[in-house]
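Re: How this chain folds, sequence and tokenised backbone to follow
Notation: Tokens come from a learned vocabulary of local backbone shapes, not from coordinates.
Start of record: The labelled sequence and token lines come straight after this line.
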Amino acid sequence: ESARPIIVFAGNRDARPGIASRLAQVAPLRVVDNVCPAVDREDLAGLADDLEALYLERKVSQIPGIAALGTWSSAPILSTARAFENVVRYLSRRYGLSVLGADVGGTATTIVTARGDSFCRVQRSDLGLGYSLENVLSQADADLEIGRAHVDEVSAYYGNHAAAPGVLPATRQHVRLLQGAARQALALTARSGPVDVGQLDLLVLAGATTTGNSEYGPLALLALDALQPQGVFTFAVDALGTAPALGALASISPEAAASVIDRDGFLTLGTVIAPISTNRDGQLDLQVKVEPAGGGTVDLE
């Protein structure tokens, strides 16, 4: 009895009675909206909400002290993924943008895409830079490069970081190793679900690698390499690590959360031009003319 899984049926409404008659007697059964209501349309919101409710009910409720914490506010406790989703959806609605947000955390990696009222969240709770770092490495691409570090040194660092993920990298080499793992976690998560990286207006990177990190160039490169986005878009990072907290704050004081997000929420690194080209190596892809606000002209090929 204790080993029977909870079954969530997310299919055709007319099939529910037949599913219930067969399964309700042998395992707990929950029913949500159809994830594919039409041949050309997908709606994962109902299923995602129910899975999150199960997570809060079965996992979060077991955390020591969580019940007392829940009495501190009338608002419900949100998962980090849901809070981050709130921020990405707000940015999309507020500014009319197509937004992709990627959060590489210590335990999980979450990617949220939002365009207007439509959104999608892909989460891998087994891929992170902390306690689930071993899973990231075991699924890493065969071409993962670890620089000139000795294999034993690399294994030792990853093992120590997985055991104590709160400890900051001590050397530049350790920073690079952590960034390499973040790239893998992002790439694996992006391949796990319907992540649309075409025609973005804004890409936001958040999580363990962005907080307190002053090397923004490598951060941008690892995200662009892992996600392979297309088009012309703005790239920003959650440099203060406040995005999930602001997403949770929005359920209590939307105005306060919106004010912080608009003014100080993210650090804009610049504009990315990521074209799709069929040219061979050495052929010209783009001719770019930049006219800085301070005057002058910069021509690039």
